[in-house]
Amino acid sequence: MSGRIMPCSPREISSLFLFEKLSPEQLGRLCSEGRVELFEPGPVYTEGDPATCFFVMIEGTVVMSRRVAGDDVEVTRTDQRGVYAGAMQAYLGDRVRQVYTNSMRVTVPTRFFVLPADIFAEVMTDWFPMAVHLLEGLFFGSKNTQAAIGQRERLLALGSLSAGLTHELNNPAAAAVRATATLRERVAKMRRKLAFIAEGPFSREALASLMEVQERTAERVAKAPALSPLEAADREDLLTGWLDDHGIDNGWQLAPTFVQAGLDVDWLAQVAAAVDEEILPGAVGWLNYTIETELLMNEIEDSTARISHLVDAAKQYSQLDRAPYRVVDVHELLDSTLLMLSGKIGADIEVVKEYDRALPPVPAYPAELNQVWTNLIDNAVSAINSAGGAGTLTVRTALDRERLLVEFRDTGPGVPPEIKDRIFDPFFTTKPVGEGTGLGLDISRRIVVNKHHGTLHVQSVPGDTRFQVLLPLAAEPSESSEPSEERAEEAV
After folding, report:
1. What is the predicted pLDDT for the residue at 319?
2. Are 393 and 380 spatial neighbours (Cβ–Cβ below 8 Å)?
3. Sheet of strand 349-354, all strands in order from the earlier edge strand to the far edge
4. Which regions in the chain score pLDDT beneath 50?
5. Full strand arrangement of the beta sheet holding 35-39
6. Domain co-membership, 281 together with 345
7. Does residue 311 sit within a domain?
8. How far is Cα 259 from Cα 249, in angstroms, rounded to an integer?
9. Domain ranges, residue 381
10. Same domain, 432 and 377
11. Cα-based torsion angle of the residue sequence 419, 161, 158, 431 in order, rounded to the nearest 10 degrees
């Protein structure tokens, strides 16, 4: 929006605090290369447009706003003379993206001294070279420091996830190794038992019956019902008595295996009827090896399936083989993150999932949303641990008008009111030294707000802290592939 051009008076602009120390020659240059404009109530410039001018208010009232989730949120309203806004980083040239980082409008007829961005950059370099160097160092140094510590934050999260994943993988891997070693031993015994049977005085019909019983027993193992400890103990007693009555040694050792395989006294009676009495002990021993082999193979299958599931969850969490921006089911992302962090969450924290499975998928950057979930879950776990280590973490999803809500609720001590407004500030942390960088929530906020056009806020009382992420159901990807590092340039 353009205003009405008015005469520029060096004396008038010298009364503004930005220009009060300038020489008459400098004031004359400003008036000759700049201009005074009168703007009627309405917008002056819009966030995201090319930053072409630097504005200094002479008189009137300005309102600064930032765009959040498609809405313009007012951040500053002032009538103080001399406040400035616009192309404030023009002196950095093309080393940064030169766009307006907020929107400005006026509520009454307002006069500005307006300086084109290229002229502003030129006079800054000519008149204040040392200040420009200092400002450049401050600007880029701050960005580099924040990027380095942000990288450390991600590395710390990666280390935590790696430790948790290693712990989770270790249990099924160790179980598979143990089961494989035991299986090798059982197969060796089966070979010896098979040699003994082959050398014995058994008819072809008896061996055929034994093989048939073996096949039916193996099928029975796959369909074994789940028994309560009391039911299992009662069945073991019955089987032990039956084995003892039929002259089979060590029946008390065989009974638990048979019970685990779903066999009962009636089944053993069918086995006894199918083979001759003199080979019944050998047949029972052979079936015991068959059952143990099947159970061990089931254990190996379960262990390797769990390892595969963990690997799939790690891929889902990292999104290494997925498009960076796509439509996702947030529940899949939440589940993979919870699984990755299960080692850190521990057994003393109960995880409750209150998912609304009817929610539609949303367009998002899934790997970065997983980073948000990681930071929020990590904070919740730390809060619960600070209150004794036992508590509940509730992860809830719901539809909140036209947005998707993801809420993380913990039973920790809560966020003190005096720091509630600071927890999203860069480098602010309540964790002990060495345990936090103070960037987790800042990174999360920028991912949610800048990249997904959503909101992130907190509600907290002792015993009930809720971090709530609201995502638009039809968000548009941001122009940049990384979360914006820019801060609001407010009129001050």
Report:
1. 55
2. yes
3. 349-354, 391-400, 403-410, 464-472, 455-461
4. 433-434, 436-438, 477-492
5. 4-6, 35-39, 110-116, 53-59, 84-86
6. no
7. no
8. 17
9. 325-472
10. yes
11. 20
